[in-house]
Amino acid sequence: MAKAIMVQGTCSNAGKSLLCAALCRIFRQDGYRVAPFKAQNMALNSFITADGLEMGRAQVVQAEAAGIVPDVRMNPILLKPTSDKGSQVIVNGVSTGSRTAREYWGDKRALLPIVRAAYESLAAENDIIVIEGAGSPAEINLKQDDLVNMGMAKIADAPVLLVGDIDRGGVFAALYGTVKLLEPDEQARVKGLIINKFRGDADILRPGLSMLEELTGKPVAGVVPYGRFDIDDEDSLSERLTARGAPALVEIAVVRLPRLSNFTDFLPLSRIEGVFVRYAEQPRALEGADLIILPGTKNTLGDLKWLRESGMEAQLLKRHAAGAPVFGVCGGYQMLGQTVSDPENAEGGGSLRGVGLLPADTVFRPEKTTAQAAGRLGTVEGALAPLSGAETAGYEIHMGETKRRAGAKPLQTLRRGDETVLDGCQAENVYGTYLHGIFDAPDIAARLASALAAKKGVSLNAAACDTARYKEGQYDKLADAVRRALDMELIYRILEGKA
Prior knowledge:
Layout: E1 3-9, H1 16-29, E2 34-37, E3 40-42, E4 46-48, E5 54-56, H2 57-66, E6 77-81, E7 86-91, E8 94-100, H3 101-123, E9 128-132, H4 150-156, E10 160-165, H5 171-181, H6 184-189, E11 190-198, H7 206-216, E12 220-225, E13 250-255, E14 260-261, H8 267-270, E15 275-280, E16 291-294, E17 296-297, H9 300-309, H10 312-321, E18 326-329, H11 331-336, E19 339-342, E20 350-353, E21 360-377, E22 391-404, E23 412-416, E24 419-423, E25 425-427, E26 430-433, H12 444-456, H13 467-485, H14 488-495
Parallel strand pairs: 1-9, 1-10, 2-9, 3-6, 10-11, 11-12, 13-15, 13-16, 16-18, 18-26, 19-21
Antiparallel strand pairs: 4-5, 6-7, 7-8, 14-17, 19-20, 21-22, 21-23, 23-24, 25-26
Helix pairs in contact: 1-2, 1-13, 5-7
């Protein structure tokens, strides 16, 4: 049975996910079989495994860092918010429908055996399990029936590293307060403190570190510097969504929908030298864009209403009329069609007129399509013609079925296992697809950037990027930075139960 170590945080976005990824990489580099685990994740950025099951993106990143194939056992419960009060609940990779927070908490005890079984199965196959908590373990209103923080630590009998984010301020109070709000047996599980995202001279911190150790009785395992690593983000707290850049040769605007999902689809575009990808929340942010992308969403009808009411739709149509190409992925593809309807209440019911740029109609059904797929683009017309014939690979994750109208042209041919389907639609510089990860293929991002540059009349030296090799380099960079920052001898003593 594997040994376990758990990373918990004083708050959301303290850096737990990246630190877990770093530990997975470090333990792998040191010769161990290691796997990540998070009992319950809440995120809109999900992934489909080879067997068609859905899991959180953070555990996919951690699995890649560990050098293993993502497995739904690493994240047995995934919550995907559909509104301010409700979420789709995915158990062992399969959607069980949407529930309010009150309904979910009422059913939570029934999920404990599922969490335990997933963890024990992974632990039987590995040397080390790196467990990630969620939010903070000191949310005293949520501690009853907890299965993701201290509740999970008890199931796995795992020592805990508690992480605080110094970049947002108040890190000493956050670490001290979190420890003191825990029950005595929970405090005893905390074996080390980590200060994350530090900028500046660490010597300035030393007096505070000593006082923190005296007040809590816990050693500080390290101060991790603020770093920039091009690694897939988990959710809407990502700094990418608010990043500002200098003027670039090619500018791509991704509409930041309220329930934006899987925005990692566009990371390959941002890696092309001379290209800047910005996330647009207001109509004026679409001005000057050489390409407008409508991304995925967990609530197509709700975000289509927002698109219309915010003025974004009108600006998108104006930019398209001026010659800017438009690309929709998944929910964005659905919005670009003529109609979107929900007769079986899969997303709350109702019907809306689409943006109207593609000759296609979408009807929602309760059944969810989740599959990995690979294919080839057909003859692409208009501004993105250089993409013609390019090979693609990715995954589908959607509840709608979109039908092209008579004479409408698909974008590509996809293979899902033994099944071959025509995917997407294109018309007059507007393109849509259900395939997430379409830009990950080695040369598609480069071809697209070059096509946009040529249309604009500028020269861009866009080189193809091997996404898998690039990610490997980023995981090594992350691991090197964290290994230097942490007292790894202490970490191993904690892991062995000797500290």
